[in-house]
Automatic annotation (TrEMBL):
<dbReference type="InterPro" id="IPR036388">
    <property type="entry name" value="WH-like_DNA-bd_sf"/>
</dbReference>
<protein>
    <submittedName>
        <fullName>DeoR/GlpR family DNA-binding transcription regulator</fullName>
    </submittedName>
</protein>
<keyword id="KW-0804">Transcription</keyword>
<dbReference type="InterPro" id="IPR014036">
    <property type="entry name" value="DeoR-like_C"/>
</dbReference>
<dbReference type="Pfam" id="PF00455">
    <property type="entry name" value="DeoRC"/>
</dbReference>
<dbReference type="InterPro" id="IPR036390">
    <property type="entry name" value="WH_DNA-bd_sf"/>
</dbReference>
<keyword id="KW-0678">Repressor</keyword>
<keyword id="KW-0238">DNA-binding</keyword>
<keyword id="KW-0805">Transcription regulation</keyword>
<dbReference type="GO" id="GO:0003677">
    <property type="term" value="F:DNA binding"/>
</dbReference>
<dbReference type="InterPro" id="IPR001034">
    <property type="entry name" value="DeoR_HTH"/>
</dbReference>
<dbReference type="InterPro" id="IPR018356">
    <property type="entry name" value="Tscrpt_reg_HTH_DeoR_CS"/>
</dbReference>
<feature type="domain" description="HTH deoR-type">
    <location>
        <begin position="3"/>
        <end position="58"/>
    </location>
</feature>
<dbReference type="Pfam" id="PF08220">
    <property type="entry name" value="HTH_DeoR"/>
</dbReference>
<dbReference type="InterPro" id="IPR050313">
    <property type="entry name" value="Carb_Metab_HTH_regulators"/>
</dbReference>
<dbReference type="InterPro" id="IPR037171">
    <property type="entry name" value="NagB/RpiA_transferase-like"/>
</dbReference>
Amino acid sequence: MKAEGRRQGILDLLMEAGTATVEELSAHFDVSRMTIHRDLDQLEQEGLLRKVRGGASVQSSGQFESDFRYRQRLAGPEKQRIAVAAASLVEPGQTIIVDDSSTAGGIAAHLADIRPLTVITNNLGVIQELSGAAGITLIALGGQYSKKFHGFFGLVTDEALRSLRADVAFVSTSSIHGVRAFHQDQEVVQTKRLMLAAAERKYLLADHGKFGRPALHFFAGLDRFDAVLTGEEPPAPMRKALHEAGIKLTVTGKA
């Protein structure tokens, strides 16, 4: 197997397992440990995984956000409940912004019953789902495509957002610490901030696993949002902190 195919195979394996040791990868691909180390070094340099002691992982850390394919596999039922609750906040005729996240992207499946709508997004999955949909005016934000985030970012994306206005923005984040939201990637943070600036109402969508998780870059205070939507109750100390700060927390509850 050539290096390119083997590295894609490593990623595919990690998308299923989350982590793997060098020994496991060496045996699976029938190559030396040194070859696997070179593969992991290259994939880490491309931002597609992180090396850990004895192996590699695509799971999130304070400085590394998972590939969208791995994130899509996490908390699926909860994210679906959040998407349904978010869609209930949309009215026909509105303009909404949907960010690159798998959580916010779930809204797309529920928009056909609310049309007509204008949808602004940098999320390639949402663009693909809504392109050509009757009653949906789709504004796809240009920019540089990120395979890791399955969306568009950069100067072109940000300039487009500065020229647009929307009724509602739905965004997610990878970390909620106290009453502030954080993310590992500063370019993603910049785009999300501009989405908030472009919208009259703003909602943060986050599965309960985001509460207390670390991330490097400050994104926004939770007081910037009209509400935080989650699918399960966060731990009691976090609920208390949100209540004392006057943050509206909406828990969708299990079906």
